[in-house]
Amino acid sequence: MRVFKLKVFARFQRRERLGDAALCAAIRAAAAGLVDADLGGGLIKQRVARSGQGMRGGFRTIVAFRRGDRAVFLFGFAKSDEANVERGEIARLARFGA
Hints:
Blueprint: E1 2-5, H1 7-15, H2 20-31, E2 37-40, E3 43-50, E4 54-66, E5 70-78, H3 87-97
């Protein structure tokens, strides 16, 4: 499976010091069927552990996911910063899931 990230997500990843290993672990879990939320249109919401704190204090990511083919990290946020992603934002990101 190929894993990509948008430039805006890569900036978020650097700013939050989120390692590639944590992203790969999230994709392996999704490929095994452990998806936190299926948003429809090829998008999933997947939790990524914060270094030293685990999943609970971690980050939420929106991923365009096609099982067995590719995953593209589109958007990331800390739950403490943002409660959830709005419907309009999901619709905008859904075009990447196609």
